[in-house]
Write a structure and sequence with these properties.
By secondary structure, the chain is of the alpha+beta class. Helix content is about 40%, strand content about 25%. Strands 2-3-1-4 form a 4-stranded antiparallel beta sheet, covered by helices on one side. The protein is globular.
Length: about 130
């Protein structure tokens, strides 16, 4: 059922919308990533592991913005999701974290190129926040 719906939507572009992924092999995505290492020792704090993940994200060269419960990351789809995998590999293999749970929200657009910065600016403009 899901495949049939996805095929129908993908084959019927509306208005001036581009077919997602059709004009580039690696389309743009913005994700909200929350990586939660689940340890058996050292109490409940995960700030050490979060710091390791943030360092890896920073070294990736992708645009990102940390917030209280995760990090927004933007860039080419394959690069962003490869980075998510690298976070898991690093925590498991280099730091002995036995279990990780990750929440990802992903957004893509076909009508314009969206960035973290212009999404924030749009809301701040509507709120009347000075630039």
């Amino acid at each position: 059922m899901l495949r049939r719906i996805a095929t129908r939507v993908a084959s019927a572009p509306r208005g001036g919308l581009k077919r997602w992924g059709s004009d580039a092999a690696n389309p743009h995505v913005i994700i909200d990533l929350c990586v939660v290492p689940m340890k058996h020792t050292d109490g409940v704090s995960v700030s050490k592991e979060v710091c390791l993940v943030e360092k890896l994200i920073d070294e990736s060269g992708l645009t990102h913005k940390m917030h209280a419960y995760g990090t927004n990351i933007e860039g080419p789809w394959d690069d962003v999701f490869a980075l998510v995998k690298q976070c898991h590999v690093m925590l498991h293999n280099e730091h002995g974290v036995p279990r990780i749970t990750t929440t990802i929200k992903a957004g893509t657009r076909t009508d314009k190129h969206a960035t973290i910065a212009n999404k924030i600016q749009s809301v701040e403009d509507k709120m009347g926040v000075p630039s």
